Amino acid sequence: MRQTRFIVFLSTPHSGAGMANWLQYMGTLLRASVNVNELEAHHPQLRELTWYRDHVADMGIKTFVYCEEHKTGRLPLGFCGILVVDKTSADPGIRDVTPISLDEDHISICKPTREGKRSMVYRQVKRMTEELVNVSPSAPSIRPQLQPESLHQTGTKPTKIVTYGGRAKIAICDRLHDSWEKLADYLDIPPADRKRFEKGLEPQGVWEWLQDRKRLAELETALADIRPDLVEVLRNPQ
User: Both 90 and 24 in a single domain?
Assistant: First the structure.
């Protein structure tokens, strides 16, 4: 565990999934497997996950949790599909860690082939891995993030600070609407910070959060994945 820096849970039940109880009841018809049986609420295997919850803060491990939005397939005897792991059962109970539901089912969520490199799971794992490589003392830096004060020490140009005018901010915030939540997920804005955004003005909250941290340079790339229609608006606001 000393070498672990982050963990991604994909539709992992932490408090038990209600459908597993139902599958247990229908076991003779559906032939529930051992793995499915272990999804039953309050199963001892699930209780072992509480060890991670109780110690993760001390270990300094970042945790990301994803769950499915769609029911999985169709079952025998004409039963419709079932939502295997919802937000409630996916919640690990770790402070400032909120499950993110994706446009997937229980099978496709771990196979990001439909969107490929645009998949949120793929992007998150890739970004975190690159950050680990950047801070590793034995590995070459992929994207060095130099502070301005390091310019005179190394002779290397610092990371460019991007700024936008008021027109760009107004144009983006007026059009972002409910997409601000996906943008916040993409940018890893902590839930505690999101709660501070004024209700009805969340897009402005995202913008100012980036601005305060000198991270507006990330906005165009994020929009290209979340709302590609807004990239040109950002570049040329009317």
Answer: yes
DSSP string across 160-224: PPP---HHHHHHHHHHHGGGHHHHHHHTT--HHHHTTSPTT-HHHHHHHHHHHTT-GGGHHHHHH
| 130 is a domain residue | no
Within-domain flag for 187? yes
This prediction's pTM? 0.49
CATH assignment of the domain containing 201? 1.10.533
Q: What are phi and psi of 187, to 5 degrees?
A: -90, 0
Which two tokens mark 203?
Answer: 């897009």
CB 105 within 8 A of CB 171: no
Give the separation between CA 195 and CA 193, rounded to whole angstroms: 5
Which residues does 50 contact at the CB level (< 8 Å), separation at least 6?
93
pLDDT in tens, 134-190: 654 444 433 333 333 333 333 444 456 788 888 899 989 989 988 899 999 999 999
SS3 percent helix, strand, coil of the chain, rounded to 5, is 50, 5, 40
